[in-house]
Amino acid sequence: MIRLGGSALSAKIIQLVIPMEPNLELVAAETASTIAELMCFDEDGIDEIRMAIIEACLNAFEHSHSPERKVYITFHILPDRLILEVTDHGKGFNPSDVRPPSIDEAVRGGRKRGWGFKLMRSLMDEVMIETGSWGTTVRMTKMKRRGGGCYDR
After folding, report:
1. What predicted TM-score, i.e. pTM, was given to this entire model?
2. Is 74 in contact with 85 (CB distance < 8 Å)?
3. Which of 36, 37, 57, 134 would be a feasible disulfide site paired with 25, CB 3.0-4.6 Å?
């Protein structure tokens, strides 16, 4: 059960645990793609979900410093949306310390990293970050658009 907008909605939940090893973010991406396809997201929506979960996993792999070296992914499947939660049990961080990326600096050959959260926010309808000494959870929501064939299925 997940609580959204003051009311409880029943969600189908799928959980995935992956080790922090090279290319295993692709397992999460493939799972997300399959779920989004079964939910009848359009091709663009599926690609956006796939890219966002890859970014979230890579951030956890690279920045969490999790001693257990695992990422926990929960997919909440609702009639009108897919909610993805990517959790690590690392050190956490202060979101206000994350320097926004600069297109000018990237173009001039400088820092090309740091685009993950900006990219996730542009791909998904909502992105929330909960972080602390227990680790970090990135919660991303993608709404289904009407007219996508099996929207009401």
Report:
1. 0.83
2. yes
3. 57
Q: Quick one: tokens of 8? A: 């409880």
Write out the two tokens for 2. Answer: 């997940």
* CA dihedral of residues 48, 85, 35, 3 (deg, nearest 10): -110
C-alpha span between 25 and 40 (Å, rounded): 23
Q: Which domains does the chain have, with CATH numbers?
A: 10-143 (3.30.565.10)
The tokens describing 81, both together, are: 């949306």
| Closest CA relative to residue 56, chosen from 139, 126, 133 | 139
Q: Please provide residue 72's backbone torsions phi and psi, each rounded to the nearest 5 degrees.
A: -105, 125
pLDDT, tens digit, for every residue of 89-131? Answer: 999 987 777 666 655 655 566 555 567 888 999 999 999 999 9
Residue 57, judged by CB atoms within 10 A of its CB (0-12, 13-18, 19+), counts as buried
